[in-house]
């Protein structure tokens, strides 16, 4: 008998050679129907592979990322099988799972092409083969046999791949008539695949090498239920509508210019107001939380980054040094603000009494990304962090963590992110040597983070070995309105920079001590955050943030003066908006305001003018009736207070 | 007879060969006593030099910069004469006038030194020689004779200088026993010099070449009245106290770090708050004036600056291009924001109806300066401009100019700069070819500026030929509390960038037109402005700007709770300050608050607590008596409204 430890810590005994599927069956019939693969001591295995020794075992279903992965990898084989039936003589490159689905790189043969028009028949063939419930069969083969097989088949690509493999490690997987060189693992049979859709077709060089032959890359996605495919396609459609690049252009928030440079956003007036409001919001919250603002330059001497260690680690892959004309100097565009803040800390001696010191800066940093990697505002070459560095005593780490968590949660609430979890990244306890900092400090910091997260009632996942070499951290994973996950708001303990910059404070014992540093940025990058926010709310920003909170729409020219009076009154209370004085019909004005997603439309005509009132229309909600201007202001302000008051 | 035209335009007739002194005497006895030199057709001459033809003539006195210049140049000769008497065998390099006074570079001979201890005896000798009223005599000499003279004297430096001079252009000046190689001009005699003071002594390489011999540079200053020297020394003393580098450190406003780099200021928390307040002030005023904020990156592709023309003109003397690791790209740190703003203008078509468009950015720019040229915040390598660019139709230039002038004057008023003049820089009418832009546009813009300045009642000086090649401009020259002049607030018309960037708008005629661009920055550089402001107000910032507007000083621990209540109440009205809860005597607390220049000290003890009141003490004014907290707030707010409400 062997001992099988399950994720909940329970241990069960099975005969030697038990399979994942047998374990699932022993637990429940339902689980056995849904299980896709099994994780054994950290590696993913076929469900049919015998387990010969004591092991930690996790049964993987569609709800696990690794389960989905296996499902889509098997689906790539299914795609290949379908293609081989439809296009005899087709040759295959590689076919891995990706974030959403899978692809296969194929060589259709001289002069043959593949386009969207061919998708339907391939999808049909895939589903037909899936219904056959063909088993994915694993088979160990010798290198010689493998070479023989693909030589006979005439598949040069698989032969290429075989060259790099060692004899004794080679496996084939077969389902139906299709045989593939593959390390596995796979789901039990094709019957699990109930819905299939090809998504895209593109060119791809064999092995990513521009000098090699260009193959055809076919992207697809599959699901265990038809309903999930339908929902996925709907989400995709919605995501397209909400694409921040599209909305950013429509709402005139930002733009790019080739002459300025790729990945370097130009913030247009409305986008700048949005940014300024986010900054102002954070600035206010930070002042309240005891942060002190600082401003530092966007470059630093190379020496600064040699000291911090960044130059050694990232120098070659970064924007290259800036030389000066007459002097032997080198500067670097700053990739982060921490070294500058360390230098501010050092401008005078610090006492234990004044700690923690918290320096905050909306610091614009520049990091080189290859042009092909750039994407809207989510992947740029220059971005502004809502950065801060806390310098504290080791005994203050927990309290500071709690305060930062409070700040992050306040941000999430104010911006409508309600679905999030926290990941706590700790040291690998087996491999303490690779971390800098004393055992005592690590233990103190790790338990501080764990306790702080618990006290704030966060749902957490703890990952051993995921800490940076210089300290443990806590990340927030936020799920947006379309169910996509974003990492926002990292809190990172750092023992390294205080060491490298020789930071000190005078303790109560009058001796010199080293402070602990905490890096944190609730938004992270303002650019990326705005992109996520645009897509999360589909451009309907929270009222307090909206670039234009109201539009006053006079029914005709006669009411322009009254409209202006209402405008002036709202301005006094810092409510933002405009009067639409265009010579257009009221219907057109309302339509245009709806398209611009202005939250409140205030329509003024004769009746309103007589009563000092406005007819209020809310974006997406419709008519709210007539109210006096003061009533509107009161309603408006209570809406905002609801969100922003902690 | 010849015609002599005086600066007021009047023409007088004199015999051929008349001298500047004779003209002065013909005008008034007093002028003849005070005249130092004469400007003849743009060149400065000795007063004794005969004028042989019709000429424009300006008599120069101590009140003219060129008069002072001549006075100090002659004083350098007087210093040399004194040194030669006291240090026989001394050799002379060069001795020019400088901004405040003059210097002479001398070689005292092997092993001899000169220090502050020697100043007094040299000053006495100078005054003794001055009292002799020795005439400065001009003499034309052949190159051979000049070489002979200095060879005999053994002065290698003057021989060095002679090498570069052409025969027929060489003159000597002699006063008393001292003969110098000199182009002149000089004042009539040493008797004009009534006060002399040596200021400093330093090393200086001959001809600025580190490989040459190091000479001794002796700085001095002289005046036509003893009283003026006394006042100058007092101002100098006051300027030292107000030096922004000293106050910046004392008030913890900013710092520099060698590791970050020279000339790259780190703004400390209090300085950052000051900066933010200035920005907020300007932002508000700009929104009111119809500006739209934008944000652009701190780098731009080299192509951007090739288009703008900056690369060709300044590229070699700037921070060098930034390369990227994998791609053939080059970026430049942005030295100005205008090219970026042109690209924003181009993000969509513009109609004549939406002009003027005004893009404003607190844009941080980087310009290379040699390390030796750097000085506190006034000469830095990175600074933030309160920059904006107005894109308008040619017919809107005047109105826009008036609006910008209004904004600049609002800034001056809010910051206590009361003494300023405006300089209008126009085309050289004789040399129109060197300017870009049509005649019609230039005429329109120049008269727009002149009319705008007149309408705003500005005291102006008009300078022909001082316009940039791309447009006319208006500069403000501000005199600070110590009488020093600063150029603040430039408004510049630009026809060049719209051309280079091919900017357009669709006119009422449906055809494409080119907009005019106006550059403007009321503060100029925030860094330099803060430096000027610190020195202007000696660190006593205007109340609205003060980092800490009040300090609440509880008489003892017993009143800390009440102090906190007062603090909370003031916070509600956005009044900034702190409670001094240290365990110190009230006298000490007041002293410390005075040193930190906190405008209002609010002392709270038993009586105040009973009455919900505070005892108010104003910095530099003393006790204002007891008032309720609400009364204090009202007083405080009316003080601020006085300054800020336009």
Task: Summarize the model shown.
The structure is a homodimer of 646-residue chains. Chain A is an alpha+beta fold and 646 residues long.
Please provide a written account of the structure:
- 2 copies of one chain form a homodimer.
- In chain A, 35% of the residues lie in helices and 26% in strands.
- Chain A has 5 domains: 2-61, Ubiquitin-like (UB roll), CATH 3.10.20; 66-231, Threonyl-tRNA Synthetase, Chain A, domain 2 (2-Layer Sandwich), CATH 3.30.980; 254-287 and 337-537, Bira Bifunctional Protein, Domain 2 (BirA Bifunctional Protein, domain 2), CATH 3.30.930.10; 297-336, no CATH class; 550-645, Anticodon-binding domain (Rossmann fold, 3-Layer(aba) Sandwich).
- In chain A, the strands form 8 sheets. In chain A, strands 16-20-21-28-25-24-22-23 form an 8-stranded mixed sheet, sandwiched between helices.
- By secondary structure, the first copy, chain A, is α+β, with helices and mostly antiparallel strands.
- The longest helix of chain A is centred in the first third of the chain and has 22 residues, at 65-86.
- Chain A is built from 20 helices and 33 strands.
- The interface between A and B is large, with 60 and 60 residues.
What is the level 1 CATH name of the largest domain in chain A? Alpha Beta
Helical run tally of chain A:
20
Q: Main sheet of chain A?
A: 8 strands, mixed
CATH homology-level superfamily of the largest domain in chain A: Bira Bifunctional Protein, Domain 2
Shape of chain A: globular
> Strand fraction band of chain A?
25-35%
Parts with pLDDT < 50 across at least 5 consecutive residues of chain A: none
What does the oligomeric state look like here?
homodimer
Instruction: Please give the CATH architecture of the largest domain in chain A.
Output: 2-Layer Sandwich
CATH topology of the largest domain in chain A: BirA Bifunctional Protein, domain 2
For the biggest β-sheet of chain A, the strand order reads 16-20-21-28-25-24-22-23
Helical fraction of chain A: 25-40%
Number of strands of chain A: 33
């Amino acid at each position: 008998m062997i001992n099988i430890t399950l994720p909940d810590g329970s241990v069960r005994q099975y005969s030697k050679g038990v399979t994942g599927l047998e374990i699932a069956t022993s637990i429940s019939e339902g689980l056995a129907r849904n299980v896709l693969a099994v994780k054994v001591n950290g590696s993913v295995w076929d469900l049919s592979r015998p387990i010969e020794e004591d092991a930690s075992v996790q049964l993987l279903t569609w709800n696990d990322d690794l389960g989905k992965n296996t499902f889509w990898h098997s689906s790539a084989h299914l795609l290949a099988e379908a293609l081989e039936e439809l296009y005899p003589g087709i040759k295959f490159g590689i076919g891995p799972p990706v974030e959403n689905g899978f692809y296969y790189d194929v060589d259709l043969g001289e002069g043959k092409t593949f386009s969207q028009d061919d998708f339907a028949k391939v999808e049909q063939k895939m589903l037909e083969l899936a219904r056959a419930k063909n088993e994915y069969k694993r088979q160990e083969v010798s290198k010689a046999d493998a070479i023989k097989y693909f030589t006979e088949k005439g598949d040069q690509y698989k032969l290429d791949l075989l060259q790099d493999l060692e004899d004794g490690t080679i496996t084939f997987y077969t389902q139906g008539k299709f045989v593939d060189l593959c390390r596995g693992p796979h789901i039990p049979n094709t019957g699990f695949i109930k819905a299939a859709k090809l998504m895209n077709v593109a060119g791809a060089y064999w092995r990513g090498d521009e000098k090699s032959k260009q193959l055809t890359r076919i992207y697809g996605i599959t699901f265990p239920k038809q309903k999930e495919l339908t929902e996925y396609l709907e989400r995709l459609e919605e995501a397209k509508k909400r694409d921040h690049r599209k909305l950013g252009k429509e709402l005139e928030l930002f733009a790019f210019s080739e002459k300025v440079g790729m990945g370097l956003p130009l913030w247009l007036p409305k986008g700048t107001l949005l940014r300024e409001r986010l900054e102002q919001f954070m600035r206010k919250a930070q002042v309240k939380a005891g942060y002190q603002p600082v401003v530092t330059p966007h470059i630093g001497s190379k020496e600064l980054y040699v000291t911090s260690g960044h130059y050694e680690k990232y120098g070659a892959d970064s924007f290259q040094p800036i030389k000066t004309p007459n002097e032997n100097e080198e500067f670097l565009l700053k990739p982060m603000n921490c070294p500058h803040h360390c230098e501010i800390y050092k401008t005078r001696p610090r006492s234990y009494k004044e700690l923690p010191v918290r320096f905050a800066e909306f610091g614009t940093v520049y990091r080189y990304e290859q042009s092909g990697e750039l994407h809207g505002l989510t992947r740029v070459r220059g971005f502004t962090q809502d950065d801060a560095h806390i310098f504290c005593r080791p005994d203050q780490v927990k309290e500071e963590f709690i305060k930062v968590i409070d700040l992050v949660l306040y941000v999430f609430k104010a911006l409508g992110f309600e679905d999030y979890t926290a990941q706590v990244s700790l040291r690998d306890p087996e491999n303490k040597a690779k971390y800098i900092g004393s055992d005592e400090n690590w233990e103190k910091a790790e338990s501080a983070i764990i306790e702080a997260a618990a006290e704030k009632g966060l749902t957490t996942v703890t990952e051993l070995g995921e800490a940076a070499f210089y300290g443990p951290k806590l990340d927030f994973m936020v799920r947006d309105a379309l169910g996509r996950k974003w990492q926002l708001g990292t809190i990172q303990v750092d023992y390294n920079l205080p060491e490298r910059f020789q930071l000190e404070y005078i303790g109560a014992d009058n001796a010199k001590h080293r402070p602990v540093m905490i890096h944190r940025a609730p938004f992270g990058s303002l650019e990326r955050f705005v992109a996520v926010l645009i897509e999360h709310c589909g451009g309907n920003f929270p009222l307090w943030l909206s670039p234009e909170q109201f539009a006053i729409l006079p029914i005709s020219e006669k009411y322009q003066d009254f409209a202006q009076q209402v405008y002036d009154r709202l301005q006094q209370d810092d409510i933002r908006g405009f009067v639409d004085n265009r010579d257009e019909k009221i219907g057109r004005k309302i339509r245009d305001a709806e398209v611009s997603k202005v939250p409140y439309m205030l329509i003024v005509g004769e009746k309103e003018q007589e009563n000092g009132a406005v007819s209020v229309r809310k974006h997406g909600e419709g008519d709210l009736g007539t109210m006096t201007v003061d009533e509107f202001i009161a309603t408006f302000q209570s809406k905002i207070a609801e969100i922003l008051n902690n």
